[in-house]
Amino acid sequence: MEGDIKTIGAAIAIGLGAIGPGLAIGQLAGKAMEALGRNPEAAGEIRQNMVLALVFAEAIAIYALVIAALLIFVA
Questions:
Q1: What are φ and ψ of residue 24, in 5° steps?
Q2: Which end of the chain has fewer CB atoms surrounding its CB within 10 Å, N or C?
Q3: Alpha-helix residue ranges (DSSP H) falling in the chain
Q4: Of 20, 16, 14, 8, nearest in space to 67 by CA
Q5: pLDDT digit string, tens, across residues 28-45
Protein backbone atom coordinates (compact mmCIF):
# COMPACT_ATOMS: atom_id res chain seq x y z
CA MET A 1 0.00 0.00 0.00
CA GLU A 2 2.77 2.42 0.92
CA GLY A 3 4.62 1.72 -2.34
CA ASP A 4 1.50 2.53 -4.34
CA ILE A 5 1.13 5.91 -2.68
CA LYS A 6 4.79 6.77 -3.29
CA THR A 7 4.44 5.77 -6.94
CA ILE A 8 1.30 7.87 -7.40
CA GLY A 9 2.98 10.83 -5.69
CA ALA A 10 6.02 10.53 -7.95
CA ALA A 11 3.82 10.27 -11.04
CA ILE A 12 1.93 13.42 -10.05
CA ALA A 13 5.18 15.26 -9.29
CA ILE A 14 6.79 14.53 -12.65
CA GLY A 15 3.51 14.91 -14.55
CA LEU A 16 2.76 18.35 -13.19
CA GLY A 17 6.43 19.30 -13.22
CA ALA A 18 6.70 18.57 -16.94
CA ILE A 19 3.59 20.48 -18.06
CA GLY A 20 5.01 23.96 -17.45
CA PRO A 21 8.39 23.41 -19.12
CA GLY A 22 6.73 21.62 -22.03
CA LEU A 23 4.40 24.54 -22.67
CA ALA A 24 7.22 27.04 -22.20
CA ILE A 25 9.53 25.25 -24.64
CA GLY A 26 6.81 25.03 -27.27
CA GLN A 27 5.88 28.68 -26.98
CA LEU A 28 9.53 29.74 -26.92
CA ALA A 29 10.37 27.81 -30.07
CA GLY A 30 7.32 29.21 -31.85
CA LYS A 31 8.20 32.79 -30.96
CA ALA A 32 11.83 32.24 -31.99
CA MET A 33 10.69 30.97 -35.40
CA GLU A 34 8.48 34.05 -35.79
CA ALA A 35 11.41 36.30 -34.90
CA LEU A 36 13.67 34.49 -37.39
CA GLY A 37 11.06 34.89 -40.08
CA ARG A 38 10.81 38.61 -39.46
CA ASN A 39 14.53 39.29 -39.05
CA PRO A 40 16.78 36.54 -40.45
CA GLU A 41 19.91 38.68 -39.98
CA ALA A 42 19.55 38.36 -36.20
CA ALA A 43 19.63 34.55 -36.27
CA GLY A 44 22.73 34.24 -34.08
CA GLU A 45 21.43 36.43 -31.28
CA ILE A 46 17.95 34.89 -31.41
CA ARG A 47 19.39 31.38 -31.31
CA GLN A 48 21.66 32.22 -28.38
CA ASN A 49 18.80 33.67 -26.32
CA MET A 50 16.48 30.82 -27.28
CA VAL A 51 18.95 28.14 -26.17
CA LEU A 52 19.55 29.92 -22.88
CA ALA A 53 15.82 30.10 -22.18
CA LEU A 54 15.41 26.44 -23.18
CA VAL A 55 18.07 25.45 -20.67
CA PHE A 56 16.28 27.28 -17.88
CA ALA A 57 12.92 25.74 -18.80
CA GLU A 58 14.44 22.26 -18.98
CA ALA A 59 16.07 22.72 -15.56
CA ILE A 60 12.61 22.99 -14.02
CA ALA A 61 11.65 19.62 -15.51
CA ILE A 62 14.88 18.11 -14.17
CA TYR A 63 14.04 19.41 -10.68
CA ALA A 64 10.63 17.71 -10.94
CA LEU A 65 12.36 14.47 -11.98
CA VAL A 66 14.69 14.66 -8.98
CA ILE A 67 11.73 15.20 -6.64
CA ALA A 68 9.93 12.23 -8.18
CA ALA A 69 13.01 10.05 -7.74
CA LEU A 70 13.34 11.17 -4.12
CA LEU A 71 9.71 10.30 -3.48
CA ILE A 72 10.22 6.79 -4.84
CA PHE A 73 13.58 5.91 -3.33
CA VAL A 74 13.82 7.93 -0.11
CA ALA A 75 10.35 8.57 1.26
A1: -65, -45
A2: N
A3: 2-38, 43-73
A4: 14
A5: 999 999 999 999 999 999
Global confidence as pTM: 0.76
Q: Name the residue among 67, 7, 71, 30 with its Cα closest to residue 22.
A: 30
Total tally of structural domains belonging to the chain:
1
Tell me if 10 sits within 8 A of 72, measured CB to CB: yes
CA atoms within 13 A on the CB side of 62: 6
- Distance (Å) of CA 16 to CA 13, 37, 67: 6, 33, 12
Which domain does 50 fall in, by range?
Answer: 2-73
CATH of the domain at 22: 1.20.20.10
Distances, alpha carbon 5 to alpha carbons 17, 40, 75, in Å? 18, 51, 10
Question: d(Cα 72, Cα 14) in Å, to the nearest integer?
Answer: 12
